[in-house]
Amino acid sequence: MVTSRKAAQQRSYIAWHAKRAQAISPREPTMFKKILIANRGEIACRVAATARRMAIQTVAVYSDADAGAKHVSACDEAVHIGGSAPKDSYLRWEKIIAAAKATGAEAIHPGYGFLSENEEFAQACGDAGLVFIGPPASAIKAMGLKAESKQLMEKAGVPLVPGYHGSDQDPALLQREADSIGYPVLIKASAGGGGKGMRAVEKSEDFQAALASCKREAISSFGDDAVLVEKYAQRPRHIEIQVFGDTHGNYVYLFERDCSVQRRHQKVLEEAPAPGMTVAMRKQMGEAAVAAARAVSYVGAGTVEFIVEQRQDGTMNFFFMEMNTRLQVEHPVTEAITGLDLVEWQLRVASGEKLPLAQDQLRIHGHAIEARICAESPDNNFLPATGTLHVYGLPPSVSFERGLVRVDAGVREGDAISPYYDSMIAKLIVHGDNREQALARLDEALAQLHIVGLSTNVQFLRHVVQSRSFARADLDTALIPREEAVLFKQEKLGLPLTAAAAVALSLLEEKAQETADPFSKRDGWRSHGVALRRFEFEFHGEPAHAALTYLHDGALRLAVGNVDEVLVFAGNGGAVDIRFGEQRLSAHIYRRGETVHVFARQGATQIMVIDQLAHAGEAHGEAGRLTAPMPGKVVSFAVKAGDKVSKGQALAVMEAMKMEHTIAAPADGVVQEVLYAPGDQVTEGAELLKMVA
After folding, report:
1. What is the tally of structural domains in the chain?
2. Which residues are known catalytic residues?
3. Res 154 pLDDT > 50
């Protein structure tokens, strides 16, 4: 049930669409001629691609940081709306509405993130005579606050996880409720999403610190620090249902997506259909999702998310978690298995058309998996990374349309990944006749994805896909910590092969620089004896070296580590085939400065080739310093000058790419000086505080 005010808003929203359709034509709604896309990056390019196919003109908006971004060139027009920080641009809805009116756009597509679930923005669009390509403001409000939405779902008969969803936010009360529910519990920002403002708490004494961190992250991301507390289900799966509604009262569900593989409560891999899903449970969950949408007179694309408890007898039970009142990042897997374009459906429904298909016309075809390619360091607690895409090599694929391999991205080679926005670089989606085929296709595509210039999660994703749990569909939200031993700090190539690749690249580069002058040749020729050459490396932080011997017959012998074998290679400096003794390697090799990056079917790695002359006279780094591991904002310090600290103790909290990160003491010591204040922006490597032993 909804309040009379909400009901009036819903009736007004639906009546506005009906009036618009009748004003254009008494029988048939007319599609928009021009829309503005109130977003950036991949989703802005995604919406623009469908709009172009439908002969709809598009208007982009952009910040200072995005002046040369791909989404700007993907649209027909572009309007500058402010500074690099989201609060100065993509969250300034008054500027976005002004841009839409100035360019003659009839509607605004919000994408996901930013203003996509902001009821004030949705209402302001309608007040300005613009169509908001999404649900009515009342539906966004009803589902946007987790506590209120759970109360609404309880009245609608949708199963809920035991928890506290009240408005009293007194920390002592929340602590008592958590203690009463029983640990582990999950604290979640009521207005949150995307894993932000969310913490799992294992014991009572950790609750207040986790609550404070949640509230800080929630106020930063959503402007609202209200939270709810729920029982943390054991071996839970995260399964969501894609729903659609139109202004004529029609609703369908487009089946489910399994999003159980997560890190820090953010999705890593998503797939459809959910492994192990029965026809009966799919129908139950789908009908529950439609009931949730119907309860708020939902219009457009939405996702109802459920926690699914896996019982010991093999059965599953589901509980409502939240509804995302927008298009999801993972919508391409639904497109892959249904053969539909969900953005096209959004545009058609928003223009006043009925849903293109009824429930009994929808079918599942094959299996699809999506991997989120992110700028981050999985081996360093998934710290976000920034940098330039010096190499951005993709597997054979399509973009923004169905295909066996699809890559949706809002970046190009040479673009910079900044600290201002989300860390996602691209989405890799594969489709197969079954899950096994899709898994093999995903691993092959990940192997062909080459990124140089910043840390990414590509190799980590390959490890997840190859893990026993994921391969066998033994899924739950704890899969990553459970498989930790095979997911992190994995080296698939090893020092000997990697060093051989670096040496081969060096020799190929030297060969390419040779001229007709015999003295330009670097072939190691000697009138007597043999030529020896030494290479110095750094591999995973450890020094290493190799000795290359030029033999009389023109052959090469390389000694590295405990391997001393003949080295044979052929290639053009990019794709290289290497035989090092009995080992074979076919790889793409790239040099960036002193670092050589090696990408092969077995895996990818990098090695630093040290130029001794270039480093002569360099001083060793100072001891007793704590530096920022990434660019971002200082949130707080847990210590002050004069405090004694122990190795591993939390010293400071930083925020980057909309997530908080705790900085710990590298060793025992005493804090000598704190060099920044909360709220300060710092660069990567900036000294945060001084310590003495």
Report:
1. 5
2. 326
3. yes
